[in-house]
Structures are given as structure tokens and as C-alpha cells.
Amino acid sequence: MEYFVKERGSRREVFRAKEMELKKMNVFGSELSIRIIRELAKKPACAMDLARALNEHEQKIYYHLRRFEKVGIISLERTEVRAGALTKIYKINSPYIALKLFDDKPIEYFVRPKEIEILHPFIERGRMNSIIVVSSPDPHGRFGAASSDGYAAIDLALFIGSFLREPEINYRLDTQIDEEDLKKNLILVGGPKANIVVDKINKFLPVYFDEKNDWQVVSTLSKTVYRDDDIGFIIKMRNPFNTKNFVLMFCGRRFKGTRAATLALIKHASELEKDNKFKEGIARLVRGVDRDSDGIIDDCIFVE
Fold first, then answer.
1. Which of 9, 21, 167, 174 is the most buried (most CB within 10 A)?
2. pTM of this prediction?
3. Superfamily designation of domain 113-302
């Protein structure tokens, strides 16, 4: 995935972009091709819709759509049945096009658009737009458990802080979250035994904890059960208590698994969407790895 980064005052705006070869730019060689792109920028559409909106023959529209799809400017969003026939609805993939005229060295290396994309809408324009929820260190909840995931939460908070323009990490203990807070964008750390917010959401997850079987991790996507302490998962999905917002979850059977889940974002953000089977967001399972054999999980591998 390519990105276009625009400097605007003290902030950077990051947009999806499509890198194209110069010789393929001839797809924009007519006025009609530009009009089609401008119309598709308003909303996804089919050839018939575009023909009516632009007062052009449908076959001309089909010709340009095929050319745009071939070079990756547009893609098929969905199909619909209209008047007994299957209709293809197309969308524009990126608002920007990037042309490389010659090879050169990057000006900067520290812009991390993939992480920014995954952290949307939890971070907006360099500001926190969410609550990080960590487990209380005191015994609490249905199971009277105390947290041991603070270490993982600290690493995650430091990582998230690197994307903020001001030091304003917004975090709360799970015992401090009320009904209104549950409806906001939430970043959740820890398993349901110690984090009561995760306990409330557990039943909605594509990968969940089975409390009746020693908190083993069950994947509804692969029908696999995981019993090891170093298994964790990272999930990004709509908030079941308010589908306008999202939850981002870093959970494990034990601390090792939770630590592995946070490392999936910190070290391997570009891998999170690869081979992702959860269509409504992101759901990846990881196993913690101790690379330097010092007894501390310092990396992870993706298992699903």
C-alpha cells in the first residue's frame, strides 16, 4: 500500500495513494475519463448510473471502467441484482495517484502510515479519540482477579504516545468505566478474567475466551482451540455497545499472551491485515516468542 503525506502546518495528513507507471497515465487521456472519476469520487456506482449522470452512452462508460480497473484506479466494491441482471458497483481505491519519475532516497523514514491507519479512529489528527482501559491491580469483578497486564499496557501507551502531538494519553481502570464510556472508542488490554470490560465484550468476539474451560482461546474463524499461556490476539471491530465506534483489543490467556498481542501492533503492524479472515475488521492470533532467551516475551509470530 502506498500513501501520500501532506505537510499542513505542524501536522502531517496521510492519504491512501495509487502508484502508477507513467505509461499507464493515458487512461486519463479524455475528458470523459476525468468526468467518470469525479463522479465515482462522490459515491460508488455502476456503468448505468454513470451513463445517466453524465448523459453518455453506457458502452463508453464500460470501456473506461475496464481500463481504470486494469490499472488499479478502481475496483469492484459489490454486485447487485437489478431487473434480474447482476450489476457491478465500482469504487475509487485512492484519492491520490503517485508517479515515480526516477529513483531517489526518501526524505524521511519515520512516518508510519500503516500504524496510523490501524489506530484510526482511536487517534484523530494527532489527538486521542479513545480511552485505553487497563485492568485494576486490585481483586475485582466476577472472578475477583487482579491485573498482571500493566507492563504490556505501558509499552502500548508509549507506542501510541509516539503518534500524538501532545502528551495526553487517556486511560482508565476497568472499574472506572461507566455505561456511557462503554459506547466510546475503546482500546482494551488484558483478558476477561481481570478486565471486566473485556468480560462484557467477550461474547461478541470472533475469537473469544471460554470461561468454562480454563479460559482457552476459541477461534470461530478457524474452529481452533488454543490452550497455551503465550497465545494472544488483537482484534479491531465495531463496538457492540455503539456500532458508530470501535474497539481495539489486546488480549491473552495470561500476561505472555497479552504481551504478544501488543507486540503484534508495535513490531508487525504491516502484517496485521495480511491473511485476515475477519471481514468486519481485524482479528489475528499470535504466539509470544522470547528471542533473546531472557525469560521475557520480546516478539511474536502469527498463528492465525
1. 174
2. 0.65
3. Chitobiase/beta-hexosaminidase domain 2-like (3.30.379.10)
